[in-house]
């Protein structure tokens, strides 16, 4: 797959934009890929919903916006409600398990659930929810390497929280690896 | 014109300060701008400021032409934008002394927003505002300071708007030095400009001035000399006057004096503080650290003080010798260019009669100014009487 | 153009993941810009924010002025105060600036203005993309003026062209406008900032000869004439009035002709040296797509699809918008069937293409009223039509 489109979504304050920035930076600076990140600035950016989009590719990206995301990370009910319909058959849907009530089992999608907020609290603060989610995302989608993601963190998270952010990322990542195993076993 | 321009230029005490190659200037006979420029030039000479480090910025208007006649780095900008251009120069090179010289329409009408914001920021600028109650350059329209009832070409039945009181405006916006004079108060104006030049922060000096050709003529207020007489009789010197009490009514009393003289950090000083706190000892602006800049400023201040002492000493010797050459030039100028005399005489006579010791700060300045005005007004009266005919002719050319 | 290597203080070398707005600020700092005056307006504000953040460590100065009139005026002051300077805005702010862009043109003041275009007219679509100020950049100021405008298609090019904008501005002593758009301004991509010793910058060329020979201007229609800075003792006079080479007003038709001819020819007469284009398979093409900024990336997508259909399509990307690449369009017009000109406006640069094509081939406008980029299919359709 040479081009992949990803949407990160949730509510303001969850660090959604940061998720896209970290992933985009990891891909383009450390994974030798091309990545273009856009976010909504228009009227749709108002209110509590928040989304950022990433197009990644092996070659130069021409069209900067996403047309049909293959991966959706939804950390809030509103985000899930708004965007899950965009996913094509076989698309990857990752939701915050305690915040999103699913409307169906989504048999056509690859569905993953992660208690990111709860894990973040265990690590120390729910502020790290996005990093838990990113770790999980990295493990289950494999679009980006965990190594690149960790390298991308300095400058995008405060220096004094770098260690704990990495810890949150790893917690999510490990949970993702487990989730993959279970999913693999199930199918 | 029968003036022997070449001779006048060479002999002028202002050569060096004015761009003599650009004379004669465009101002009408009896216009107040010329004498203000003289006061300005005098202040520069006495201030000890390095003329190389002085920049004059003007907007557009009759007053806006000042930048074109002074022999310093000078910029004639667009209408209303002198203050932001000056802000740019000052911040690009904080070692410079930057003076804005422009009209009240330029500075308080189209450029009013810049005026209040430069004052608010305490930008280190000296702003000299020639207030002639009219848009001179465009033919005498109403301005933000035109007194109620006055006739202007766009208020042909009398001005129905409320005017600004500029000292109040500048004060309220945060200026740290605010003064008002008239173009007749040459001595006080010189002193005031000198003070402002030596002071850090935003200084605003308003100069009430006759626009003979338009404002005076349209309101049937006589000529330039009549106006000087009017200023003499109707100005009230009130240093420290609450700026709320400085409003000007049509042909009413004009409060003059120094109203505000206070200190607070300038824009750049405040910015430096933030930078130094953030970056520490390494903080620099344009490659110079704060201590380096402070040392340079201190050294320059000492040089300025030395030059000032020298300038005052020279002035004193000249006064003792009876300043024969200067007087001769003046006489020649008065004879051959009566129009110019109207502007020159007050500026020249005033300082000598008042004496260097008298300062605007002292209440004595009031009587001193009156004396100066009397002396000034007399020779002027005859000289400038012929002006109106020429002025009208000039007006039709605009 | 004499160049030196960049002052490392302003160069944040290395790879970054940043948006176009930030890259503009970094490009300016790398080019030696040390003075920024601006007024916030979406979608350009991030450039100002980045400059404000970086200024103390670089030793530069940032000031938020009271409006755009003041911002551009402060730049003119700062330029003559000896600093390379920049401001950034978009349509509404640019509209307020135009009078003083004219002052910068006639006083031959180097400065750089970025217009991160958003949808108009008026407040229009404040957060959404457009390319509707292409003509305004050139025709905004009253009177005949010539200036230079560049259009980046990526954050990387925002950096690169910011450096180039300063270089052209310094050499030709002319305002240079970077015409980017909300999409490029706000999208994040990899931006590689080279080390300082690999960045070539044109330094401020200040006169240092004898005072009596000093002339702030030379009306010879060429670039490279030195300027001066306040405080150097040359007592310059700068005015927006028509002037002689000393800078003194001379208000006659004859002098007007000398000055205007010089200003116009300084840019138009050196167009070959100034203009940069990016061409792909233009020779032998039936259809040439002329595009710029973000639209050129969308166009490439359409061109690739068209080529898959066997159509002979070339791409001509305008990196330099003004002066316009008249010569190249005139050369190509008789050889091809059609130019296709997609742009996020109601048809602006297409007028220039039409003028230069002079009826020798078809010219198809693919216009768009702003708020989004084109759907590539729309451009593809136009290419198909053009190839018939
Ligand atoms: C943008 C713009 N609007 C209007 C004008 C026309 N204009 C030139 S000078 C002037 C008025 C100047 O009045 P003031 O500042 O009081 O100066 P004065 O001539 O009275 O000294 C006007 C309106 C202009 N040059 N530019
Ligand atoms: S028109 Fe008025 S302000 Fe202008 S020069 Fe003449 S007298 Fe002075
Ligand atoms: Mg006036």
Structural description of this entry:
The complex is a heterotrimer of chains A (187), B (398) and C (388). Helices cover 40% and strands 20% of the residues of chain A. Chain A has six helices and six strands; from the N terminus they run E-H-E-E-E-H-E-E-H-H-H-H. Chain A has a six-stranded mixed sheet, sandwiched between helices. In chain A, helix 2 (77-83) links the parallel strand 4 and strand 5. In chain A, 49% of the residues are buried. Chain B is α/β, with parallel strands linked by helices. Chain B is 50% helix and 12% strand. Chain B is built from 16 helices and ten strands. Chain B has helices at residues 5-11, 33-47, 66-69, 82-92, 104-110, 112-121, 166-173, 186-197, 212-218, 224-234, 267-279, 290-320, 324-336, 338-354, 364-384, 387-397; strands at residues 54-58, 73-76, 97-103, 126-131, 177-182, 203-208, 235-237, 254-261, 284-285, 288-289. In chain B, helix 2 crosses helix 14 (338-354), helix 5 (104-110) packs across helix 6 and helix 9 packs across helix 16 (387-397). The radius of gyration of chain B is 20 Å and the shape is globular. Mean pLDDT of chain B is 84; it is low at 326-398. Chain C has 388 residues and is of the alpha/beta class. Chain C has two domains: 4-201, 3-Layer(aba) Sandwich (Rossmann fold), CATH 3.40.50; 279-387, Rossmann fold (3-Layer(aba) Sandwich), CATH 3.40.50. Chain C is 38% helix and 22% strand. Chain C is built from 13 helices and 18 strands. Chain C has helices at 20-31, 45-58, 68-80, 91-106, 134-139, 155-172, 182-186, 253-268, 271-274, 293-308, 326-332, 349-357, 376-387, and strands at residues 4-5, 14-19, 33-38, 61-64, 84-89, 111-119, 125-129, 148-150, 175-181, 188-193, 200-201, 237-239, 277-280, 287-291, 313-318, 320-322, 338-342, 362-366. In chain C, strand 5, helix 4 (91-106) and strand 6 (111-119) form a beta-alpha-beta unit. In chain C, helix 10 crosses helix 13 (376-387) and helix 11 (326-332) packs across helix 12. The model of chain C has no long low-confidence stretch (mean pLDDT 98). Strand 2 of chain B pairs parallel with strand 12 of chain C, so a sheet runs across the interface. The site of thiamine diphosphate (TPP) has 17 residues of chain B, from helix 5.
């Amino acid at each position: 797959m040479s081009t992949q489109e990803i949407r990160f979504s949730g509510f303001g304050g969850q660090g959604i934009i940061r998720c896209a920035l970290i992933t985009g930076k990891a891909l383009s600076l450390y994974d030798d890929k091309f990545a273009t990140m856009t976010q909504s600035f228009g009227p749709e950016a108002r209110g509590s919903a928040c989304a950022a989009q990433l197009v990644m590719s092996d070659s130069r990206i021409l069209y900067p916006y996403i047309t049909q995301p293959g991966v959706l990370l939804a950390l809030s009910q509103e985000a899930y409600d708004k965007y899950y319909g965009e996913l094509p058959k076989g698309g990857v849907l990752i939701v915050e398990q305690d915040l999103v009530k699913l409307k169906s089992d989504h048999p056509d999608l690859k569905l993953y659930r992660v208690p990111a907020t709860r894990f973040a609290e265990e690590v120390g603060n729910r502020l790290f929810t996005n990093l838990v989610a990113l770790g999980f995302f990295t493990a289950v989608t494999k679009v980006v390497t965990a190594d690149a993601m960790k390298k991308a963190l300095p400058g995008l998270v405060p220096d004094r929280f770098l260690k704990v952010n990495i810890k949150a990322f790893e917690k999510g990542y490990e949970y993702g690896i487990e989730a993959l195993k279970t999913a693999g076993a199930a199918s | 014109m029968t003036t022997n321009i070449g001779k006048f230029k060479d002999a002028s005490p202002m050569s060096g300060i004015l761009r003599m190659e650009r004379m004669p200037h465009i101002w009408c006979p009896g216009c107040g701008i010329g004498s203000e420029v003289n006061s300005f030039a005098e202040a520069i000479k006495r201030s000890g400021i390095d003329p190389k480090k002085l920049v004059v910025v003007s907007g557009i208007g009759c007053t806006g032409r000042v930048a074109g006649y002074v022999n310093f780095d000078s910029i004639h900008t667009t209408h209303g934008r002198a203050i932001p251009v000056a802000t740019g120069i000052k911040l690009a090179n904080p070692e410079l002394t930057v003076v804005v010289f422009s009209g009240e329409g330029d500075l308080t009408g189209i450029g009013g927003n810049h005026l209040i914001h430069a004052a608010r920021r305490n930008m280190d600028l000296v702003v000299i505002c020639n207030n002639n109650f009219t848009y001179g350059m465009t033919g005498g329209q109403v301005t933000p300071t035109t007194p109620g009832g006055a006739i202007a070409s766009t208020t042909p039945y009398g001005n129905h708007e409320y005017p600004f009181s500029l000292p109040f405006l500048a004060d309220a916006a945060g200026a740290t030095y605010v003064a008002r004079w008239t173009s007749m108060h040459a001595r006080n104006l010189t002193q005031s400009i000198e003070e402002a030049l030596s002071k850090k922060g935003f200084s605003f000096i308003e100069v009430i001035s006759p626009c003979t050709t338009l404002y005076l003529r349209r309101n049937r207020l006589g000529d330039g000399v009549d106006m000087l007489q009017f200023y003499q009789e109707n100005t009230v010197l009130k240093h420290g006057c609450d700026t709320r009490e400085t409003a000007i009514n049509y042909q009413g009393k004009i409060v003059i004096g120094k109203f505000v003289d206070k200190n607070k950090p300038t824009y750049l000083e405040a910015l430096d503080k933030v930078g130094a706190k953030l970056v520490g000892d390494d903080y620099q602006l344009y490659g110079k650290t704060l201590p380096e800049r402070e040392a340079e400023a201190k050294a320059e201040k000492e040089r300025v003080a030395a030059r000032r002492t020298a300038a005052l000493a020279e002035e004193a010797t000249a006064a003792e010798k009876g300043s024969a050459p200067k007087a001769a030039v003046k006489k020649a100028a008065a004879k051959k260019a009566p129009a110019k005399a109207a502007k020159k005489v007050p500026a020249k006579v005033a300082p000598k009669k008042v004496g260097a010791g008298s300062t605007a700060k002292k209440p004595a300045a009031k009587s001193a100014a009156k004396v100066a005005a009397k002396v000034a007004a007399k020779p002027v009266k005859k000289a400038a009487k012929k002006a109106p005919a020429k002025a009208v002719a000039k007006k039709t050319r605009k | 153009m004499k160049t030196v290597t960049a002052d490392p203080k302003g160069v944040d070398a290395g790879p970054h993941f940043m948006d176009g707005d930030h890259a503009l600020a970094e490009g300016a700092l790398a080019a030696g810009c040390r003075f920024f005056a601006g007024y916030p307006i979406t979608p350009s504000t991030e450039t100002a924010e980045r400059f404000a953040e970086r200024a103390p460590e670089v030793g530069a100065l940032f000031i938020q002025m009271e409006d755009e009139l003041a911002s551009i005026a402060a730049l003119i002051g700062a330029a003559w105060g000896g600093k390379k300077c920049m401001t950034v805005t978009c349509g509404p702010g640019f509209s307020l600036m135009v009078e003083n862009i004219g002052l910068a043109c006639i006083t031959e003041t180097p400065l750089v203005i970025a217009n991160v275009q958003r949808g108009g007219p008026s407040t229009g679509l404040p957060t959404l993309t457009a390319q509707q100020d292409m003509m305004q950049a050139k025709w905004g100021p009253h009177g005949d003026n010539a200036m230079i405008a560049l259009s980046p298609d990526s954050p990387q090019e925002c950096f690169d062209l910011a450096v180039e904008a300063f270089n052209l501005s310094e050499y030709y002593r002319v305002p240079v406008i970077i015409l980017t758009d909300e999409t490029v301004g706000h999208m994040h991509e990899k931006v590689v900032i080279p080390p300082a010793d690999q960045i070539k910058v044109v330094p401020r060329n200040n006169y240092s000869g004898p005072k009596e020979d000093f002339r702030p201007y030379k009306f010879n229609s060429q670039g490279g004439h030195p300027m001066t800075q306040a405080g150097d003792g040359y007592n310059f006079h700068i005015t927006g009035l028509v002037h002689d080479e000393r800078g003194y007003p001379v208000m006659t038709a004859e002098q007007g002709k000398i000055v205007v001819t010089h200003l116009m020819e300084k840019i138009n007469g050196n167009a070959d040296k100034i203009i940069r284009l990016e061409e792909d398979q233009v020779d032998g093409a039936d259809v040439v797509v002329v595009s710029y900024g973000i639209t050129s990336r969308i166009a490439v997508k359409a061109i690739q699809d068209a080529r898959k259909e066997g159509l002979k399509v070339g791409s001509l990307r305008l990196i330099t918008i003004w002066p316009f690449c008249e010569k190249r369009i005139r050369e190509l017009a008789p050889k091809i069937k059609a130019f296709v000109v997609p742009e996020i406006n109601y048809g602006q640069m297409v007028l220039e293409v039409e003028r230069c094509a002079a009826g020798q081939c078809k010219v198809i406008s693919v216009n768009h009223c702003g708020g989004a980029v084109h759907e590539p299919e729309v451009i593809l359709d136009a290419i198909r039509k053009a190839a018939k």
